[in-house]
Amino acid sequence: MNLVIDIGNTLTKYAIFENGSLISDESAASSMFLSKVKELFERYPKINHALISSVGRLERKEKDIVSLFCKVHVLSNESKIPFKNSYATPHTLGMDRVALATAAFYKNPRQNTLVIDAGTCITYDMINDSGEYVGGAISPGVQMRYKAMHNQTAKLPLLQPEEILDFIGNSTQTSMHSGVINGVSQELDGIISQYKTRFKDLTVILTGGDSHFFAKRLKNTIFANSKFLLEGLNYLLEYNKR
User: Fold this and answer.
1) Are strands 49-54 and 71-74 parallel, antiparallel or unpaired?
2) Residue 96 catalytic?
3) DSSP for residue 79
4) Of these residues, 6, 25, 64, 96, which one is catalytic?
5) Model's pTM, two decimal places?
6) Degrees (nearest 5) of the Cα angle 120, 197, 107?
7) Sheet holding 11-18, edge to edge
8) CA atoms of 90 and 192, how far apart (whole Å)
9) pLDDT tens column, 207-236
């Protein structure tokens, strides 16, 4: 049984895998790390390996806490990966993107796969049919766009994402919602179409916290999988046990 821990800026996700299958996943404030880890090992005493991934600098104490209960692998640029990495600056490639590429490599083997993660940033990661990671793109996420309009203007309000009824906004707020939600939808469709001109039989996986805003809006066929990152992290844990 494996424990995967994904430490974000404000929340930490915890996922339990048994024989490769996700059996539990939950989130908690990062400040609850110690109590949450103890709770999980009490509920799942058969956990014998863990992987920790962090968007920022990992505190040594967090690894030490988990090490009290089982073997721990901290994901880093030194970790082994199953695919060929052709990124020009592999040492700057985020661990979240490595995990998404890993999930694509295993779940869609020897096929052209584009993974789109609609999170804090929107990331695009491409694995080709030779099992090679060729790169992708990074653009501002939904919340980041709303915050930018509010922070960099004098009068635009700070809004939370909402579904839009029409792409033509008839007020300042509906215009902002259209600019973000419709704008991102058009960006996603446009970029998917670009990739399709270069890669035959392209499979597109959409994941991330804001993916529900776009899954039904896209003209291109996509497969939505909200657990894709966690699955990729578990694959990396298994690969680094060797």
Assistant:
1) parallel
2) yes
3) S
4) 96
5) 0.92
6) 55
7) 21-29, 11-18, 2-7, 49-54, 71-74
8) 24
9) 998 998 899 899 998 999 999 999 999 999
